[in-house]
TrEMBL record, chains A, B:
<feature type="site" description="Involved in the stabilization of negative charge on the oxyanion by the formation of the oxyanion hole">
    <location>
        <position position="124"/>
    </location>
</feature>
<protein>
    <recommendedName>
        <fullName>Arginine biosynthesis bifunctional protein ArgJ</fullName>
        <ecNumber>2.3.1.35</ecNumber>
        <ecNumber>2.3.1.1</ecNumber>
    </recommendedName>
</protein>
<keyword id="KW-0808">Transferase</keyword>
<feature type="binding site">
    <location>
        <position position="198"/>
    </location>
    <ligand>
        <name>substrate</name>
    </ligand>
</feature>
<dbReference type="InterPro" id="IPR002813">
    <property type="entry name" value="Arg_biosynth_ArgJ"/>
</dbReference>
<feature type="binding site">
    <location>
        <position position="161"/>
    </location>
    <ligand>
        <name>substrate</name>
    </ligand>
</feature>
<dbReference type="GO" id="GO:0004358">
    <property type="term" value="F:L-glutamate N-acetyltransferase activity, acting on acetyl-L-ornithine as donor"/>
</dbReference>
<dbReference type="Pfam" id="PF01960">
    <property type="entry name" value="ArgJ"/>
</dbReference>
<feature type="active site" description="Nucleophile">
    <location>
        <position position="198"/>
    </location>
</feature>
<feature type="binding site">
    <location>
        <position position="284"/>
    </location>
    <ligand>
        <name>substrate</name>
    </ligand>
</feature>
<keyword id="KW-0068">Autocatalytic cleavage</keyword>
<comment type="pathway">
    <text>Amino-acid biosynthesis; L-arginine biosynthesis; L-ornithine and N-acetyl-L-glutamate from L-glutamate and N(2)-acetyl-L-ornithine (cyclic): step 1/1.</text>
</comment>
<keyword id="KW-0511">Multifunctional enzyme</keyword>
<dbReference type="InterPro" id="IPR042195">
    <property type="entry name" value="ArgJ_beta_C"/>
</dbReference>
<comment type="pathway">
    <text>Amino-acid biosynthesis; L-arginine biosynthesis; N(2)-acetyl-L-ornithine from L-glutamate: step 1/4.</text>
</comment>
<keyword id="KW-0055">Arginine biosynthesis</keyword>
<feature type="site" description="Cleavage; by autolysis">
    <location>
        <begin position="197"/>
        <end position="198"/>
    </location>
</feature>
């Protein structure tokens, strides 16, 4: 997909503050467990108002911060700051939840002396509990004091919930001979499923870009990245990905008519895909990333259905955990995906080992297949042989640890 | 749903041979592991050809026995015998698989001296491996010799794969003053074992009934019973439910115009629901049955979407395993179900404890809610408050044992 990836340079240890004109911080405010052990309030701010775009969960139950952020962004098309708390989702909290999300906006706006509608708000954590606004307030004040040009890493840490590793990345491309940087941070873990999961993504760039073009680009790349991962099939109430573009790189404003538009979109997709895969790999209890590459489909939609069904199948996920070469489960997933398939044409590979041809099993070395299933990532390739479209989806294995984590999440 | 349930009498220890004119047997033929330890070939036969109906998996990959049985049944509308093997699904076995299923038909037809198209064939077990036809043949011969009027229990045992308990039931109703008996046997739902496929249901009755009416009734009750359970969300290649009605009760032929048609359909649904719930409760690694009762929906389809999303959610299933009253996960499931919902109107109960009203949490006794979550079944009630339709779905908790069974099958 990333034809010109060679033009895309990864910035070592880069994150949301890698692009010009952004500062961030993350502090422990005692939201997570009442104790100030883990960072749980994060702030990101741009020197100037940035063209902004957002995508939100498809869940009919949407958390207060999403509703508040969406309303502001649709009105202004701009963001200059983002405030995030982890440990409490501010979801299913009714009118008070909306008031609290708006207060987070106002508190952040006041510190940076900007319009409150230029502040994006995000929350992630337990559903149905009101935010401890006193702690939130202290956290915002402290984080705002601490924002710095290398605070991206603290921002990435402060938005984590059950994530085991922070998720951030940054890349650079040359546009009009000028260096354009794109950085991102994300969190995931549970309730991850195609169509925006308990997933938060924040992407910053110093590129100058038209807001409408940025929104279109975000939606396009989201469908090929964040919407192609699953951890447990559950779609959360709080998913949101925000992109800020503050124009500090000094390039002419980008739009689809610009010669280097495709390069920018590919760089944006690179950042989104990196975060999406990091989220899948760090799924609750996961030990390995699962990649399902499907080709030979009638349409990309069909290929996506099959790929998502494979990475979403509990039986495929447990087979990976147990390194068990059960290709019958892959056939099952292909069959129930809803895609147009001819069972007698399906070819299946586990890593480099072909295990099925024309829908039937082949002679293969069990030990080699097991080795492929012990790799990270585990790669399944399926050729439907009914067309020419392809798609790739990402997931993780299902383990004892997932059951343990979710059998007692709140305790 | 079963308004006249009081008229439905359960037959103690009843199964597929409880109705008049049916004999059955189950024998160990060495299909499961080469050793003749567990029963794995079952035969059911009716004195006379029976009006018959069938429903089959929606998986695009369908096993040979389904294709063979479907073809025969669509042609004749009758069955006089059913032959089943466990231990091998005869799925993803190509042309040879079809030949083998047809040979099972022929072998059984020969013993009972009936037309081969009057024999239904079902298989459940390993996918992608050819049947050991020598053993199948011996098994059919032996089982056919042993068929008896009280062989229903052996039939129920021989169709089991990783099921922990046999699943059978029988009921009686009076129609035209004549006793009509309906019996049934079933085995594990979902892709219950790493390589094992699936849910099989066999229902017998001595009622006289028009074939078209029987097919319609089966489809109707299946949508409210077998199609409302989930274990792991994976749909197998071998699911099949068959109903035989041999008319030995001596009633006038039933059809929807018959005064007591509703009573017969309710009795049929009682049998199907009993088997379906038994299958869900015996789901892989399950410790408890989960019942999701949804009301106040705009349509029964919407109510069903919500109920099935709840019992299918990994996060709800793990919360039940951990007895964690995490009602936010129920709100999440309601929201992602695809049903028309107003998040601000949703009321939720865990057992008898209301935990959410108008989409928000309520004050409730955590200890009492935990007690409700330790009961079997665990009952969730959701009132969407946007309409008057309802539906109930059935599932089971997600446990370490599920991961163990599916993750370490070959190790």
């Amino acid at each position: 997909m990333l034809k010109t990836e060679k033009k895309i340079q990864v910035v070592e240890n880069g994150g949301v503050t890698a692009p010009k004109g952004y500062k961030a911080a993350g502090v422990p405010a005692g939201i997570k467990n009442g104790k100030k052990e883990k960072k749980d309030v994060a702030v990101l701010v741009s020197e100037v108002p940035a063209a902004a775009a957002g995508v939100y969960t498809t869940n009919a139950v949407q958390a207060a911060p999403l509703l508040v952020t969406k309303a502001s962004l649709e009105k202004t098309g701009l963001l200059q700051a983002v405030v995030v708390n982890s440990g409490n989702a501010n979801a299913c909290t009714g009118e008070q939840g909306i008031k609290d999300a708006e207060e987070m906006q106002e508190l952040t706006a006041k510190v940076f002396q900007i319009d409150k509608e230029l502040v994006g708000v995000a929350s992630t954590g337990v559903i149905g509990v009101l935010l401890p606004m006193d702690r939130i307030s202290e956290g915002i004040a402290e984080a705002s004091r601490k924002v710095s040009g290398d605070g991206g890493v603290d921002f990435a840490r402060a938005i984590m919930t059950t994530d085991l590793v922070k998720k951030e990345v940054a890349v650079q491309v040359e546009i009009e001979g000028k260096v354009v940087t794109i950085g991102g941070a994300g969190k995931g873990s549970g309730m991850i499923h195609p169509n925006m999961a308990t997933m938060l993504g924040f992407i910053t760039t110093d590129a100058a870009i038209e807001q409408a073009a940025l929104q279109a680009a975000l939606r396009q790349i989201t469908n090929r990245t964040f919407n192609r991962i699953t951890v447990d099939g559950d779609t959360s109430t709080n998913d949101m990905v925000l992109v800020l573009a503050n124009g500090q790189a000094g390039n002419d404003t980008l739009n689809p008519g610009h010669e280097e538009w495709p390069l920018f979109v590919e760089a944006l997709e690179y950042v989104a895909l990196h975060l999406a895969k990091a989220i899948a790999r760090d799924g609750e209890g996961a030990t390995r990333l699962i990649v399902a590459e499907v080709c030979g489909a009638r349409s990309e939609e069909d290929a996506e259905k099959v790929a998502k069904t494979i990475v979403g199948s509990s039986l495929v996920k447990t087979a990976v955990f147990g390194a068990d070469a059960n290709w019958g489960r892959l056939m099952m997933a292909v069959g129930r995906s809803g895609a147009e398939v001819d069972p007698n044409r399906v070819d299946i590979w586990i890593g480099s080992i072909q295990v099925a041809a024309n829908g039937m099993g082949m002679e293969y070395d069990e030990a080699e297949a097991t080795l492929e299933l012990q790799k990270d990532p585990v790669v399944f390739k399926v050729n439907l042989n009914v067309g020419h479209a392809d798609a790739t989806a990402y997931g993780c294995d299902l383990t004892y640890e997932y059951v343990k984590i979710n059998g007692s999440y709140r305790t």
